[in-house]
Design a protein that fits this description.
Two copies of one chain form a homodimer.
Chain A: H1 2-16, H2 56-62, E1 71-72, E2 84-88, E3 99-108, E4 139-150, H3 154-173, H4 175-178, E5 188-189, H5 201-206, H6 229-251, E6 260-269, E7 272-278, E8 282-287, E9 290-293, H7 304-313, E10 322-323, E11 339-342, E12 351-354, E13 362-363, E14 365-366, E15 373-374, E16 384-385, E17 407-412, E18 423-427, H8 429-432, H9 437-449, H10 458-471, E19 473-475, E20 478-480, E21 492-498, H11 501-505
Parallel strand pairs in A: 10-13
Antiparallel strand pairs in A: 1-2, 2-21, 3-4, 4-6, 6-7, 6-16, 7-17, 8-9, 8-18, 11-12, 14-15, 18-21, 19-20
Helix pairs in contact in A: 3-6, 9-10
Chain lengths: 506, 506
């Protein structure tokens, strides 16, 4: 059994090496990505994050489901802020590790004419030199992302390569506003990007006197909502996720980009940490061994009402196969006319309804906990990709029910003091399925307190420790934790980011 | 000015007395309820809650906008649990007090054939005598409701008369399940109401072996969600609110039932307090001077994304007059082609978009705080009634954007110890607009600690004290609080319910 998987792996890994990604033979598997009928090339070849700097031999070694080797940062390859990282492949549920990660330091700058569409361009940090110095101001940005792929690794790989650049470029478009952190962003911009104030004098004189009108000439409208710079950055992140999703869809015309992925990103800029989550990965801040949750999970259960509402308003999306009403279990034909508990999109409690023919359809949301699914197909409700995903053996698309927009939470780094053991932990669900927030916090705090504070590897070692706690060790009865409970058989990816990292770096 | 209001009042009050409600003259104003063109009679005459026991003279006196007399429970009329109550009319924004309240002790019992549709029937507590004793078990239920009407008082009055009965009757239908509080309610019921177990043996033998299938014969389905009795009661309350809303719509064919109302209800049954809120009223529990919020407010701002999502999915509901996209202010025609901040139903942050013709439409959600409106019309997004409500001078209905389903929170009374100063405070927005949760808690705690614990009036006096703090006193510059800030000019209704009330009663 083990060797069979391994043999398949060898063939695959042979075909997924970076040097092989320009060959488009029909037998070329596309690195675990299902090729379409027209055998498109993969958008990016399969691989592990660049910062791991794996040799082809190590890359192949990383895919061994039998031993599940833990990959960590090498001692001589540093990530910014001394970020710690560890990952491990699943126990056999997919050929390749469908998790991906990225950790990047970038600079936000005004787009020059030449680089208007610079998403695919490397951030080499070289100043352009042609413009006066003050037009080249650059705002540093730190990015960490974990991407948990499903049904192929294509979307996760693409997102890990491009999402941070999309965010950087969108921030670049408002760079001139970010440079004045103390003034609120203008509501309206002229085409050249400068603030635009509509002339309201004429209009105002025609209107009857309004007691609410403010006489201050800087407020020219009866009602103008204040928007903060923070709200603008959140908007950039939200729209960049949408843009990433659109890009995957668009490039699927030319490339094989398989599956979809949950996306969790942390962005540090101007003293604030923005944590954006679309899916079931999780991030927590551990400060003085206290847990501050930075994400909510988006699953069929947590987003039940949103999904039911869509199914209710747009029943055609259910393809006559599904009902938006939830029942505690499947209904049998013999139960027609009986009364059964249900809840619709407006309810959190349960009530009885008389069962009619329509209720015999399969429920839009079905199952509990990790087994909950949308239309019996997918267990997460936010993420990137999945544009082709259909209900098995049908023409019903899942995508309309999925959201690519993250929830963004903000943590003010500058307003809090951090010791060297205060960290942000980001992990895919493989980590959290078997280890609670509290257990993670206790483990990290205990581990770091025993570690030399000046050891640059300490955060990677802490990440490795966390990962081992969730993977467990291989025993006769599978992967087991010290308490004999089942370890996670999923891909696991962990970042441990010291919150005092910016200072540690200098 | 004052006497003009007063004269109008006298005429009105003359027409709104209970003894006048069978007269259907054309000049009969319907008790502040706008009569339709066909001059339908009001469903219920205007009045104040029965438990205030007002004489016609006092009822007229209660409507004096100039003096805004505070009405409280009389010393000799007791509400169950020694519940305290106070109310005051607005400062002139509507002729009559559009708030309503109810406080009822009822009994949940199995519906007999005779009384299947007993909603309009008084709960006289007389046992039916025809059935064996064990079939007449009755579960006591305590109900408190505040209803904040708008655009007329018809819906608020009707809800205050009937909502508790609908809840009682729906609970009656599941009375045999409530009698066994320790067993989970059955998923499926036969027509006679007894648990129904489908035969799954045949189906199971035809299916391939499923490793997840449970062999325990009591769990006969692969997946069956556990539903608690509490979930069932929540479902009853949610569906009873919907039923109340449907009833208002249905009876509008025969009666004048003006306006709509926010509805906040507290229901005590079997040791638990269920607080159900649809609108912008608020309830808090004060325990040891700690505040436990029991409601969230539902306003255009708090429900922005739900409303925008509906406008996005069903643009025809916006009648070509409104856009579901939110902008920080109105856009002028001269700004076409410029870029403006916006957010759509998926976003919480803001981004810039190029303004197109469609963006010049009025925004679905517009305004901030108390001035936020749905389609420039209504400032609350949940409640009962409003079936006829349209955007001014248009044929665009607001109702599709409003939800009649409350959010229900549960507080376990039995699991907590309560002193005589621990209370539930329920109030319409008139109370909370000028007084914070913290201020209310401090005021109640301070007031009650100075009151004789055995005085049956202490909770009514505390309610009156709270109300005075929000109304203020009439000065030259209007209703003012001690700190000179403006008092609430709105109708105000307050219940102060002692959480140890059940013991106080005996």
């Amino acid at each position: 059994m083990i060797s069979k998987v391994k043999n398949a792996m060898s063939t695959l890994v042979g075909g997924m090496m970076p040097h092989g990604h320009h060959h488009h033979h029909n037998h070329h598997s596309g690195g675990g990505q299902t090729c379409g009928p027209d055998s498109l090339p993969p958008r990016f070849p399969y691989g592990r994050p660049d910062f791991l700097d794996l040799t082809p031999e190590l890359l192949q070694y990383s895919t061994e489901h039998a031993s599940r080797p833990v990959l960590t940062l090498k001692r001589d390859s540093r990530l910014h802020w001394r970020t710690g990282y560890a990952e491990v492949i699943n126990a056999g549920k997919s050929m390749l590790n469908e998790d991906q990660a990225s950790c990047e330091k970038l600079f936000v700058k005004k787009p020059s004419g030449k680089h208007r569409n610079s998403t695919l361009q490397e951030d080499n940090g070289v100043s352009e030199g042609r413009r006066p110095e003050h037009q080249n101001r650059r705002i540093p940005l730190h990015f960490w992302g974990v991407f948990d792929g499903h049904a192929g690794s294509g979307a996760a790989i693409m997102a890990s390569k491009l999402l941070h650049r999309l965010i950087r470029d969108r921030l670049g478009e408002i760079c001139h506003l970010l440079e004045n952190p103390n003034s609120a962003p203008p509501i309206c911009l002229a085409k050249n990007g400068s603030p635009y104030q509509a002339d309201t004098k004429k209009g105002a004189s025609q209107e009857p006197e309004d007691p609410d009108a403010v006489s201050d000439s800087t407020v020219r409208f009866h009602m103008e909502k204040a928007v903060s710079l923070e709200g603008l950055v959140i908007g950039v992140i939200e729209t960049a996720f949408s843009q990433m999703d659109d890009l995957i869809e668009k490039e699927k015309a030319s490339y094989a980009i398989s599956g979809g992925c949950c996306a969790l990103a942390a962005i540090h800029m101007m003293g604030k940490l923005y944590v954006a989550n679309a899916g079931d990965s999780r991030a927590i801040i551990i400060r003085n061994n206290e847990v501050i949750p930075m994400t909510n999970e988006f699953t069929p259960e947590s987003e039940r009402q949103r999904l039911q509402y869509l199914g209710f308003l747009r029943p055609e999306l259910l393809g006559n196969e599904f009902t938006h009403i939830e029942f505690p279990r499947r209904i049998q034909h013999s139960e027609l006319g009986k009364k059964m508990l249900y809840r619709d999109h407006t309810m959190t409690g349960w009530a009885y309804k008389t069962i009619v023919e329509d209720d015999l359809k399969f429920p839009l949301i079905y199952g509990e906990g990790k087994k909950a699914r949308v239309m019996a197909t997918i267990g997460v409700t936010r993420g990137l990709g999945d544009h082709d995903l259909k209900v098995y053996n049908s023409n019903i698309y899942i995508k309309p029910f999925l959201s690519c927009v993250p929830e963004v939470k903000v943590y003010n780094l500058d307003e809090n003091k951090h010791g060297p053991d205060d960290v942000l932990v980001m992990g895919t669900d493989g980590l959290w399925d078997v280890t609670t927030d509290r257990e993670v916090a206790d483990a990290v705090t205990a581990y770091l307190s025993c570690c030399d504070p000046s050891d640059p590897m300490r955060y990677t070692l802490a990440a490795q420790d966390l990962l081992m706690r969730s993977r467990g060790v291989l025993k006769e009865r599978g992967w087991r934790l010290p308490n004999e409970r089942l370890g996670s058989g999923d891909d696991i990816t962990v970042f441990v980011v010291p919150l005092a990292g910016l200072e540690l770096e200098t």
